[in-house]
Amino acid sequence: MYLFDKPGKENTAQVAEIAVASAREKGIRQIVLASATGFAAEAFLPYAREFTVVSVGYCYYVSPEIPNGMSGETQARLRAGGMQLLFGTHVLSGAEHQLRTRFGGTYPVDIMAHTLTLFGPGVKVGIECTVAALDAGLIAPEPTIGIGGSGSGVDAAVVLTPDCSIRILNTKVHEILCKPSYYPAGTI
């Protein structure tokens, strides 16, 4: 496992290198990454014809400025390069986020999300996005590299075999490829 000195978008290019090298070495055909604006997705665009690459962004209408966080021009460029895009509800928050914010308390999916975050936000997000891509039928239930970050860009990659969200506990994490070695206070 490679450890970055700190979290952040400056790790994005190196995450792409680590993920692609590992996918080639292990014979993995699928890479799923989180990318709200398209910044991280751009780093994986050169590989979108070699692998099935899925970029997972925000669900629609989270932001009033851009309906799903990614400009139409960026979406067109990524799709033209062979990347698949998914905009949907986050598997590990979704409706429970609204319940928590309106009524307070802790809910089971929140506990799962916060437990995964113990390994770092990017690890949790990489797993979450991969399950969402499987739910949408964009990838197969086979070894996949899931990539996430702790804010802007990406800084973590995991090898996992996802199962759909209704059987998320059957998802198997095989290896953490890279992640930050620490997170500043307030990051997690």
Give an account of the 3D structure.
The chain has helices at residues 12-26, 39-44, 72-80, 94-103, 108-117, 121-135, and strands spanning 2-4, 30-34, 52-57, 84-87, 144-148, 156-161, 172-180. With 188 residues, the protein is of the alpha/beta class. Helix 5 (108-117) crosses helix 6 (121-135). The model has no long low-confidence stretch (mean pLDDT 92).
Summarize the structure.
This protein has 188 residues and is of the alpha/beta class.
Helix content class = 25-40%
Q: Give the helices and strands as they follow along the chain.
A: EHEHEHEHHHEEE
Strand content: 15-25%
- Output the number of helix runs: 6
Based on the model shown, name its key terms:
seven-stranded mixed beta sheet; 188 residues; alpha/beta
Please give the structural blueprint.
Blueprint: E1 2-4, H1 12-26, E2 30-34, H2 39-44, E3 52-57, H3 72-80, E4 84-87, H4 94-103, H5 108-117, H6 121-135, E5 144-148, E6 156-161, E7 172-180
Parallel strand pairs: 1-7, 2-3, 2-5, 3-4
Antiparallel strand pairs: 5-6, 6-7
Helix pairs in contact: 5-6
